[in-house]
Amino acid sequence: MTNVNFFLGSRLIQKNDFLKRSIGPHTVTGKKFFCVFLALMSISHSLFAASQTAVNSRINYELLRFNEDWSVIKDGLPDSDLFDPIKFIALDDSKRFWLSFGGQARLRLEGFDNFNFAQASASRNDDTYFSSRLRLHGDLHLGDHLRLFFEAINAFTPERELPGGKRIIDVDSLAIRNAFLDIVFAFDNSSLTLRVGRQDLLFGSRRLVDPPLWTNTIRPLDGVSAIFKHNVWTVTGFWTRPVS
User: What is the pLDDT of residue 225?
Assistant: First the structure.
């Protein structure tokens, strides 16, 4: 089976943003916000046998946790999991209204020897420290057409003593990572989702549009997106701006 994804959109960039963009001969240097348009296509192939997955089968954890659909376990699975009781919580008898919880805890040890390649022995910068990150989310589905997703993050790097101290990518205390509303319109073999609020974006091989998950914190994006799906095609348009 062939999965085809096409996305286009814009992201607002500001001077001194962590990435400088170029469009033809013009480089992003202005102080005002403006739009960078992207139009990329990625095509991925998978074995036909892999497409024969049963409807009610366990799903994998995703990099973007809001892409998980835990309604597949609403009637139970033969291979139960420790976290199943909180992954699908029915709020009515029809199981069309349901709630899901999840999270991630990460502890990372980082060590540097002669940071920034200092030449003089007196100015050598050596350091070893821990970075921790906790993410918790809730996913509320109100029938087939409304959805609310909320994710919070708490990131710490308490003992970094290298030049620059605690950087913006190291610490983010009790911040909102994702908070959006989905409105879903269903058609024959197609669907259109309008998403409004704070949301992560990730496309294709993650070279251009991707939340840098290797950092301890991630700069959130506020905006809107429209996601159209038809058979194996997915078309996403978005307009977002980074949150200071």
Answer: 97
49, 12 contact by CB (below 8 A): no
The neighbour count for residue 26, using CB atoms within 10 Å, is 9
Two tokens, residue 229: 């799906």
Q: Report the distance separating Cα 199 and Cα 224, nearest Å.
A: 8
Q: How far apart are CA 244 and CA 240, in angstroms?
A: 13
Mean pLDDT of the chain: 79
| Long-range own/partner contacts, residues 82-86 (CB < 8 A, 24 or more apart) | none
- What are the start-end ranges of the H helices in 32-142? 84-87
Residue 95 class from Cβ within 10 Å (0-12 exposed, 13-18 middle, 19+ buried)?
A: middle
pLDDT in tens, 19-77: 333 333 333 333 333 333 343 333 333 333 334 344 457 888 999 999 999 999 998 88
CB 23 within 8 A of CB 36: yes
- Secondary element (H or E) of residue 194: strand 190-198
CA dist 139 and 160 (Å) reads 34
Helix (H, G, I), strand (E, B) or coil at 205: coil
Please give the span between the terminal C-alpha atoms of the chain, in angstroms, as a whole number: 41
What is the rounded CA–CA span in Å between residue 20 and residue 28? 6
More confident residue, 163 or 242: 242
Say how many C-beta atoms besides its own lie within 10 A of residue 113's C-beta. 9
